[in-house]
Structures are given as C-alpha cells and as structure tokens.
Amino acid sequence: MIYFNNGDELLLVLEALSNPQRLKIIAVLSEGRQYVSHLARELGISRPLLYLHLQKLEEANLVSSDMEILETGQAAKYYQLNDIHFVLNEQLIHDLSKSLSIKRKK
Amino acid sequence: MIYFNNGDELLLVLEALSNPQRLKIIAVLSEGRQYVSHLARELGISRPLLYLHLQKLEEANLVSSDMEILETGQAAKYYQLNDIHFVLNEQLIHDLSKSLSIKRKK
DNA sequence: TACATGTGTTATAAAATACTTACATATGAT
DNA sequence: ATCATATGTAAGTATTTTATAACACATGTA
Fold first, then answer.
1. Among the four residues A83, B3, B16, B61, which has the most C-beta atoms within 10 Å?
2. Which tens digit of pLDDT belongs to each residue from B36-95?
3. How many domains would you assign to chain A?
4. Does residue B106 form part of some domain?
C-alpha cells in the first residue's frame, strides 16, 4: 500500500502514471519481472524511450531494478513492480495540497 | 466512486490529476463550490489559465459547472467537485491496459 | 460616463515531455 | 572477424502542456 508523505510525493506518482506507455509498462511488469531489451521488444518502443519511462516510474518508486546475468552469460537489467496500490479521494487531495509546491522544474 | 470503463478513461483522469495547479483547484473546491473569478483570485492564477485547468478537470468528469446569478445581478460560473474516489492497483492497470490506446493527440 | 466585476476567446510564448537517431561498450556464438 | 544480443547515454527534434497578454461583451455602482 502506497503511503504519501506529502503533496509533492502524490504528484510524482500521478505524473508517473499519466502516460499510456508507462501504464503499458506496468501492465507488462504485473505479469512478472522483465529485462529492458525484452520489454522494449514487447512494447514495440525504442530502448532509449523505454529508459526514459522506466526512470520516471523508478523515481516515483513504482518499479525497481536489478542487474542479473542471463543464461547466455550476458548482463541484463531486470525491472519489477513495487506494490502499487492506493486510494485517492478529495479528502486526501485536500490534506496533501498543503504540502504541494507549485514550481518550475528546471 | 469512480468506475473506469476502459484504459483511456483511466488515463484521462490520471492526466487531469497530474498537475499541481489542478490538485490545488480540487483542494479548494473540496471546501465548497466556487465561481471562476473568485477561484482565480484565491489560487493566484490568471482566469484564462484557470479555464484551461478547469476544462481538463471537467473533461475527466472530476468537476462540473453551473451558471448562476450573483446577488449583484452579474452572471457567475460556479464549479463544484464531482465524487472523486477510486482505488488504483496493478491488477486494475493490467486489466484496463488492454483498452488503452497509444496515440498522438492532435 | 467611468469603474469594478463578471464571462469568454484568441493568439502567442515558454517550458516540459516524449521521441528519434546515433553512438559507445561488453558477451557469447558462428 | 562478424553477427546477434545486451547495457548505457548524448544530442537533437517534435509534440504537448502550461502560462501570458490582449481582446470582446455584459451588469451594477459611483
């Protein structure tokens, strides 16, 4: 169960989830851990793009990764889902909005 | 309780929620309905910008609006929160991802 | 009449996000 | 050696989102 410490954390998760490719990534990973190149093929997107999306998911703590050696002897970076489960309602948004910052990113 | 008919609907809601200004708007409206100009002052943002955000929230069915005549005799557009409450987890994302489209917007 | 307060829109600029192309490195198999 | 597969990243482009500025019109009040 995801617990949000503040509004910025909530926003980070919502931003990570507000993209169709990233939802697809989560859907695939919900069937089991997978390594980057395989994921890219399965989703039909380029590896650099996949990296970008995985990075956002990782920053929001929705996925995590481990390096592993494949049977072939090659290194592979495996991604897996963290526990994604939370309730969202107006009360929560109201409470967390006090610790939500409105800022430029760069 | 929000029920998602398909992945695109889920995404629409997540996109609407993935912006700090819009979360603030929801937070303010959770304390009661309010009209646009008042909202803009309270949030410290311009009316055209507020319109943009309200439009996204309305498209996602998170808020709705009514025209009303103020005591002064002027027309005012009141916005109010719809019921915002849902659970999100990997199972739901997995199921809805099948009806989620990856597309350009314009 | 001029001012303050509403709604509503268009055009434009700025910032952030998404995506592509090209490259570098490493391992094992043919 | 060359091919196929893996990671990783830099740089440039395209698209989308966010924000601003400038209008239009209407009502009530000083």
1. B16
2. 999 999 999 999 999 999 999 999 999 999 999 998 889 999 999 999 999 999 999 999
3. 1
4. no
Of B11, B24, B27, the CB nearest to A18: B11
Residue type, position A81, single letter: L
Q: Is B81 helix (H, G, I), strand (E, B) or coil?
A: strand
**Per-residue pLDDT for chain A (106 aa), expressed as one digit of tens each?**
999 999 999 999 999 999 999 999 999 999 999 999 999 999 999 999 999 999 999 999 999 999 999 988 899 999 999 999 999 999 999 999 999 999 888 6
Classify burial at A105, counting beta carbons within 10 Å of its beta carbon; exposed 0-12, middle 13-18, buried 19 or more: exposed
Question: What is the signed CA dihedral for A48, A49, A50, A53, rounded to 10 degrees?
Answer: 120
In a domain, B45, yes or no: yes
Strand D: list positions under 7 Å from protein Cβ: 5-11, 15-22, 26-29
Q: Which residue of B has its CA nearest to A11?
A: B18
